[in-house]
Amino acid sequence: MKENKVVDRAISLARDLKDRAPKLFGIATGVDGLDDLFFTVDIKDGKAIKKALGGYPFRAVINLTGMPDTGKSLMAEQFAIKQASLGYPPCFVTVETPAPFLIQGLKMRANAMGVNWEEIEDRIVLIDAASYEILREDLPSLLNTLERAIEEYEIKSVIIDSITGLYEAKEMMARTIVREVFSFLKSQGQTGLLISQKRSSHEAESAEAAGGYAVSHICDVNMVTAKRIIQTQRDEKIFRKPVGSLVRTFRIDGSRMCGHDTDTHILEITELGLVRIGPKITEVE
Length: 285
Ligand SMILES: Nc1ncnc2c1ncn2[C@@H]1O[C@H](COP(=O)(O)OP(=O)(O)OP(=O)(O)O)[C@@H](O)[C@H]1O
Ligand SMILES: [Mg+2]
Known about the structure:
Blueprint: H1 14-17, E1 26-27, E2 38-44, E3 47-52, E4 56-57, E5 61-66, H2 72-85, E6 90-94, H3 99-112, H4 117-120, E7 125-128, H5 133-137, H6 139-153, E8 157-161, H7 174-187, E9 191-197, H8 215-218, E10 221-229, H9 233-239, E11 246-255, E12 259-260, E13 265-269, E14 275-280, H10 281-284
Parallel strand pairs: 5-9, 5-10, 6-7, 6-8, 8-9
Antiparallel strand pairs: 1-4, 2-3, 2-12, 10-11, 11-13, 13-14
The site of magnesium ion has 3 residues, from α2.
């Protein structure tokens, strides 16, 4: 018969954990209009005062999910460029696009953001899981590779585009895979940006529809992108775009680590290929 064990190390007093709680501050997202949508709340003279965090919560594992072509990969690239430009090396695990192609995109993004590529190319680490099947199929190999990169290049944040690509054709493994990636990033003290793809048009604008329901329950922060075609006069008024045009939207669905804006915002992609978070939809009305 299996003997049950008591894990003493897992028991602690709240007081003894306080020094181990990560400090709450923001790290720049590289996306205009997004940094101030995360905030903390201080109580002063009995009143709640919001203070913008100035970026993604440090050491959060973030799920960015949405339909195809809504700017998820662009946002991932912008985050990598921004962090590298500030001197904090990111590691980009590319699961869909082979690394040499991703470089093209990163260079364009750097250019559009006014960041000198030569200054950051030694600070962006790529792991090419698109070209090496073992990294997509065998999670321990991917995490070992990532651990090596984190150690060797003093990586501070990890981007995976996309996590969905790690459980293609084995959807029932999604939860286990996401949980292991989450625990790994936590144990390594990393801020993580996991991109996940929408499974269907059901619940198109919610985080739950993505990743076989696995990702959004596990991650600390959920952000959702969506798109729609303007079809009615009402939509024309709300979005100020003619019938037939495409509009993209963005929303923060949840964050366990800090306060956050909850409105749906217009997401614009500029002609230089940069995502920008615009006004809330209600303001456009
Ligand atoms: N320079 C540019 N000018 C205008 N639009 C651009 C530019 N670069 C990219 N786009 C638009 O951004 C979209 C790409 O967004 P992105 O690749 O980030 O999508 P995604 O959400 O990652 O999609 P998927 O789920 O398919 O990976 C393209 O469909 C294109 O319409
Ligand atoms: Mg993409």
